[in-house]
Amino acid sequence: MDSRIPATPHIKGYHLVLFAENDAGYRNLCHLQARAWLEGRYYNPRIDKELLRQYQEGLICMTACIGGELPRRIVEGREEDVQRTLGEYLDIFGRDHLFVELQDHGMAEEKRVNPLLAALAA
Predict the structure, then answer these.
(1) Are 100 and 120 in contact (CB under 8 A)?
(2) DSSP string of the chain?
(3) b vs e for 74-101, b when ≥16 Cβ sit within 10 Å of the residue's Cβ?
(4) CA-to-CA separations, 109 to 81, 99, 100, in angstroms, rounded
(5) Nearest-5° Cα angle at 89, 88 to 95
(6) Other CB atoms closer than 10 Å to residue 60's CB: what's the count?
(7) What confidence tens digit (pLDDT) does each residue in 13-50 have?
(8) Strand order in the sheet with 98-99
(9) Contact 66, 107 (CB under 8 A)
(10) d(CA 19, CA 58)
(11) Whether 56 contacts 92, CB under 8 Å
(12) For residues 81 and 25, what is the distance between their CA atoms, to the nearest angstrom?
């Protein structure tokens, strides 16, 4: 399966949270934002994992809310894709720069997904 975000209007992609750890990270966030708006825009600005690999230096990544790729894979029951997706993000950011995000807004999906996300983070 292609790790790039499909450029179709009915597929919105996934949420991902990135923070700059240092000056290099700030510059890389600026590059990613510019590329998302200028080259990846298809209804919404977007980037793909290839671009994340290119500009990952100095970034800290969180897997995001229930709209993130990892939680979505769990909701969809795609266990093999959960492991593959986690491996891709670990490969891009490393263990020290990837954090599994847990949220509890009372949503049934979050209650089902959070224990699995916590186990993956461990």
Answers:
(1) yes
(2) ---SPP--TT----B-EEEE-SHHHHHHHHHHHHHHHHTS-BSB----HHHHHHT-TTEEEE--STTBHHHHHHHTT-HHHHHHHHHHHHHHH-GGGEE-----SS-HHHHHHHHHHHHHH-
(3) beeeeeebbeebbebbeebbeeebbebb
(4) 18, 19, 16
(5) 120
(6) 17
(7) 899 999 999 999 999 999 999 999 998 777 788 899 99
(8) 17-20, 59-62, 98-99
(9) yes
(10) 8
(11) yes
(12) 28
What integer pLDDT is reported at residue 87 of this predicted model? Answer: 96
Structure tokens at 91: 């490969």
Task: State the pTM of this model.
Answer: 0.84
CA angle 36, 31, 42 (to 5 degrees): 5
Distances in Å between the alpha carbon of 36 and those of 42, 98, 101, 115? 9, 21, 23, 32
Burial of 27 (0-12, 13-18, 19+ CB in 10 A): middle
